[in-house]
From TrEMBL:
It comes from Neisseria subflava. PANTHER family: PHOSPHATE REGULON SENSOR PROTEIN PHOR. Gene3D superfamilies: Histidine kinase-like ATPase, C-terminal domain. It catalyses: ATP + protein L-histidine = ADP + protein N-phospho-L-histidine. Its EC number is 2.7.13.3. GO terms for biological process: cellular response to phosphate starvation. GO terms for molecular function: phosphoprotein phosphatase activity; phosphorelay sensor kinase activity. InterPro entries: BphY/WalK/GraS-like, HATPase_C_sf, HATPase_dom. It holds the Pfam family HATPase_c. Keywords: Coiled coil, Kinase, Phosphoprotein, Transferase, Two-component regulatory system. The keyword Signal does not apply. Residues 133-256 form the Histidine kinase/HSP90-like ATPase domain. This is histidine kinase. GO terms for cellular component: plasma membrane.
């Protein structure tokens, strides 16, 4: 028996199994995200039907726009999974001019109902026309960041999104987007791992989630040469259900 040939076949088989396991994991993650988007669409659709019955046209129009925006974000999320499954497809991805402020405003619009329910006002500071050449999958980034802020911020506390532009030609940075909220305190040891796939900090374990959001946002930022930075203050602002809360910031840095 030719053992070398058998060993080579086994190695190839193991490699193939490993690839298939990775693909299954990607599809499982997508299934979880699709279910979340489906719930959003279903909830808004049910309310939309009720509004039509009550002839509240302006609110119905607003909801129909929200549903359309959710659908476009879902499409972006599916595109990202396709890129994970086939990285070579990156070269074929169509790009368009994406205005960053508008992308965040779109995400805020989607979460209007949720933010009203929890009394977490998502407030924008500054306005910019700064745009980048982006794949449609980039739409997931503002959605993930505002979704995370709403998920972890205690009811009644604000979420601030700041747009800081730089016009100095000697400075590489052209725009910083800073999302500031109150969230579970993250230690210095943990924060360096927050962008890793499936990683969850100790104080966030009792919150819903798979540890995918910041990982996906970071991967999409890297594909667009955008830097994603995270910080958690040491000062404790409040304690709820034995969980310490402090100021949490996410910064996106756009350079030329």
């Amino acid at each position: 028996m030719n053992y070398d040939k058998q060993n080579k076949k086994l190695l190839k088989l193991k490699d193939r199994i490993s690839i298939l396991e990775d693909e299954i994991e990607i599809l499982k993650n997508l299934k979880h995200e699709v279910a979340k988007f489906n719930d959003l669409i279903l909830n808004h659709s049910q309310e939309l039907v009720e509004l039509f019955h009550k002839e509240k046209e302006s609110r119905a129009y607003e909801l129909s726009n929200t549903i359309q925006n959710i659908s476009s974000i879902l499409s972006s999320r599916i595109i990202y999974s396709e890129l994970e499954l086939n990285p070579k497809g990156l070269e074929k991805q169509h790009k368009y001019l994406a205005t960053i402020y508008q992308k965040f405003d779109k995400a805020r619009y989607i979460f209007n109902k949720k933010s009203r329910k929890t009394n977490n006002k998502v407030e924008f500071h500054g306005k910019t026309k700064y745009a980048i050449s982006a794949m449609s999958a980039f739409d997931c980034v503002p959605f993930i960041l505002i979704d995370n802020a709403l998920k972890y911020t205690p009811n009644g506390m604000p979420i601030d999104v700041r747009f800081q532009t730089y016009d100095n030609p000697t400075i590489a940075t052209k725009l910083e987007v800073i999302i500031e909220s109150i969230g579970p305190k993250i230690s210095e040891e943990e924060i360096i791992h927050l962008k890793e796939k499936k990683y969850r900090a100790k104080n966030a374990l009792n919150f819903p989630g798979e540890g995918l959001g910041l990982y996906i946002a970071d991967q999409l930022c890297k594909l667009h040469s955008v830097e994603l930075k995270l910080s958690s203050d040491k000062e404790i602002i409040t304690t709820i259900n034995n969980v310490e809360y402090s100021k949490f910031s996410v910064m996106l840095v756009f350079r030329t």
